[in-house]
Amino acid sequence: MHSIDIRPLTALPETVKQLTEMLIETVAAGGSVSFMHPLAPEVAAGFWCNSLALAERGERVVLGAFDGEALVATVTLLLDFPPNQPHRAEIAKMMTSLSHRGRGIATRLMHAAEELAVERGKTLLVLDTAAEEGAAGLYERLGFILAGEIPDYALKPHGGLTGTLVYWKRIGLAAQPRPQRTA
After folding, report:
1. Is 162:132 a contact under the CB 8 Å cutoff?
2. Segment 47-71, tens digit of pLDDT
3. Which domains does the chain have, with CATH numbers?
4. What contacts 113, CB < 8 A, 6 or more positions away?
5. How far is CA 3 from CA 17, 65, 67, 103, 181, in A?
6. 8 Å CB contact between 51 and 62
7. Which of 85, 90, 176, 181 has a 20 to 30 Å separation from 121 between CA atoms?
8. What is the pTM of this model?
9. Of 97, 26, 89, 19, nearest to 61 (Cα)?
């Protein structure tokens, strides 16, 4: 395996093609990432073109992990929130190619997303994942705290309902231990 290179993505045709293939593969494998199986390539490509256009406007960052020239994982850091939420960001569309799972790439991507959020002055990260076959274990190992489960939140890609688990994590200065108050 080559060393994994993590960087922000732009709307280059080859990048959109690889993101499209990864999204289709993830959905086909049962990944609950907002789409149903079978996922048409033009729908997946349209999603990524829109997401990357939002990234160009600074509303999000789409990170990619590359093994050589192959895009093998991605995560999106959502940054555009209402005026009363300038301190938070959200993790979305965490996906790793089936061929590269279990190698720590998702962990590296999540650390990179968190670092970007801190650089942008964010102090709270939130995310959600499917209650069934989601990435709860990964997020908990990374220090995310379960806020709760919403039952029957979404359809699974192959049908049937699944709950969603909602997580949060203080980051940056907010993650520092706070001095204890003395009486």
Report:
1. yes
2. 999 999 999 999 999 999 999 999 9
3. 4-175 (3.40.630.30)
4. 61, 63, 75, 77, 91, 125
5. 22, 10, 6, 11, 47
6. yes
7. 181
8. 0.94
9. 89
